[in-house]
Each structure stands twice: as C-alpha cells, then as structure tokens.
C-alpha cells in the first residue's frame, strides 16, 4: 500500500503568499514548499513532486501561480500532475481571487470573506463578497472545475485583503481556510 502525502494547493505564489504559508506552516504544522513558488511558477511538475516526496510533515503546502497566463499555465500543469500521482492526495485547494484580464473562473465549495465569514458568494481580491454565487475569478483556477477535488475554498489575496489577512494579525482568513481543509481531510 502506498502512503500518500497530504497536499493543500494554494493558487498564489507571490511574496505575501510565500511569507504567509511559511508562517502558518510553523503555527499549524506541515511543510511549506514556498521556496518553489514564484509569480508565475517557474519550477517543473517533477521538481515539485520530488520536493513533496521528501517532506517529513503533512500537510504539504504547494503554491502555484499562472500570473494571468490564459488557459493551462505553469502552475496548473503542476496541479494536473499532482492530481494524477498515486503518491499524492490533494486534500483541498485554496483558490485565490485575482483581477484577471481573461476572466478565468471556477466553482468552489464555499468562500471566506474578509470578515472571516463562510459564504456561498464569490469574493474579489480584497475578500469582498461579490453578487455571483459559487464562482471565483482567478488566474490559476482554470482547471479546478475539471478535477475531482474534495474541497475548494475561495478567498481574497493571501496576506492582504485590506490588511485583514496580514501576517501581523496571524493571517486569520488563510488560517481558517487551512483549518477547514485539515478538519475535512481528517488531519486535525
């Protein structure tokens, strides 16, 4: 029987996301692979998989980012390869809102707004509720609808959201998303 690594995918790879995930991995537990992230992602799927295999603590936080590239960009190529890997179990995705020119979107399980409330509506980059139910615009969300993922949580821009997800405040919105995924994935 193959022991699967438990992975949480985050669709953001900028400096704020990296610092936030490093901080939260230290607080909540797990391993942040933020050192492999960038905006856009430059590492190969095989590099990410090798890093996941060599971690000692689950969950493994994988940050991917297409930086507005339409269609399946570098970050989504990684996601697609992780989904197909029998040694990896994606227990959830944090889908980060973005202002994209090509308006890619995805459905999600629920969103967390900038107040930390669970809502059925989409959110924008600031974590502000949008009028549309169940859809988020982002630049690394194109493939999410096509995959069988257990939970997708939509949030605003990690570490930002008008200061409401600031690392100095403990990044409460991103933390809540991770804790819900861990609870649903049986890791709490």
From TrEMBL:
The protein's matches in InterPro entries, at most eight in alphabetical order, are given as: SpoVAE
The name of this protein is Stage V sporulation protein AE
Q: Which domain of life is it from?
A: Bacteria
Organism whose genome encodes this protein: Aquibacillus rhizosphaerae
Record lineage: Bacteria, Bacillati, Bacillota, Bacilli, Bacillales
């Amino acid at each position: 029987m193959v022991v699967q690594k438990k992975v949480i995918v985050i669709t953001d790879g900028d400096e704020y996301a990296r610092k936030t995930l490093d901080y939260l991995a230290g607080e909540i537990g797990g391993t942040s692979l933020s050192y492999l992230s960038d905006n856009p992602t430059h590492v190969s799927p095989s590099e990410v998989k090798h890093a996941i295999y060599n971690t000692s603590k689950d969950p493994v936080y994988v940050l991917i980012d297409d930086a507005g590239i339409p269609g399946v960009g570098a970050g989504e190529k990684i996601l697609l390869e992780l989904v197909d890997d029998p040694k990896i179990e994606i227990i959830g995705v944090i889908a980060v809102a973005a202002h994209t020119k090509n308006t890619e979107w995805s459905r999600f399980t629920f969103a967390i707004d900038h107040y930390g409330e669970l809502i059925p509506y989409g959110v924008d980059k600031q974590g502000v509720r949008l009028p549309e139910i169940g859809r988020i615009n982002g630049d690394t969300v194109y493939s999410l609808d096509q995959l069988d993922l257990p939970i997708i949580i939509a949030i605003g821009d990690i570490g930002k959201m008008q200061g409401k997800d600031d690392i100095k405040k403990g990044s409460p919105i991103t933390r809540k998303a991770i804790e819900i995924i861990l609870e649903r994935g049986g890791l709490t």
